[in-house]
Amino acid sequence: MARVSGKTDADRQLRQLGEEIRVRRKSVGLSQEALAADAGIDRSHMGKIERGERNVTLLNVIKIAAALQCKASEILAEAGM
Length: 81
Prior knowledge:
By secondary structure, the chain is mainly alpha-helical. It has one domain (3-76): 434 Repressor (Amino-terminal Domain). Helix content is 64%, strand content 5%. Strand 1 (3-4) and strand 2 form a beta hairpin. Helix 2 (32-39) packs across helix 4. The radius of gyration is 12 Å and the shape is globular.
């Protein structure tokens, strides 16, 4: 992976994914806590996902998408993946 300013492409992608999840969560009016509960993910872990601090599994992306009533592929596409 190429390093840019001490960050890898993977770091950038995780931040973009987290930002897309945050934007969608806010657009449907859910708190981070409510989204985490609906997706069956610990709230603190959800915060780390949204900040791009955790490498989220595909299963968790699917759970988050279901809680946001969209497809995982839509979230991934909007995040540039």
